[in-house]
Amino acid sequence: MYCVTVLFEVRPDRYEAFRSRVVRQANDSIEQESGCHRFDVWTDPARSQQVYLYEIYEDRAAFDAHLQSKHFKAFDQEVADWVTDKQVVLWGEKR
Questions:
Q1: From start to end of the chain, where are the E strands?
Q2: pLDDT above 90: residue 61
């Protein structure tokens, strides 16, 4: 298994639009990618500009395929101007 975590900082005026769009992205990933096993979207009212993603893939190749998918590329392009910071952490082993 391969785990990816992403922490987004989102412009306040685009937060609701981003949140809605990232949920759609999560659903697309689960439905369209056999190698995507989990795609959770987390928010917290105390962190009003942050969105946290927790994703599990079959392996690194499945994650790489995700990055090349049409739905990911469309999402990435659409939200690029809404995001002020993005921290991605890759986890390669589960013990």
A1: 2-10, 36-42, 50-57, 83-91
A2: yes
